[in-house]
């Protein structure tokens, strides 16, 4: 069975004009029945010339009793994703108020790098099995940095 969630369904409440999107089209992924799909887009992000890059923040919610398993699966994406060309950072956060709520905070050099990430085997595996641990599609937001980027004060451990 083919299950598709187009990007427009994943970005609830986002004012697309703020994102500076020049074009949008969802690419369908074929997955097992019940899987929650994060569809890759061919959206073209317009970046501030002094601060190119793309920030993506995805909020996901675990099925009751699957909080730890969702966390384990998200954390398994960290090391390989950080090795990808164009990845600036990829960090997983869990809500202090609701252990079922997780956030994926990531920065990429360009939209093309994020699109390539969406096609990696480990990400597609996460997608194909996401219906086992997620209550529904993620709430994904895209941002472009407007402040001047500075080096971190302390090196981040791997």
Automatic annotation (TrEMBL):
Keywords: Monooxygenase, Oxidoreductase. It comes from the Bacteria. GO terms for molecular function: monooxygenase activity. Coiled coil: none annotated. Residues 54-143 form the ABM domain. This is Antibiotic biosynthesis monooxygenase. It comes from Pendulispora rubella.
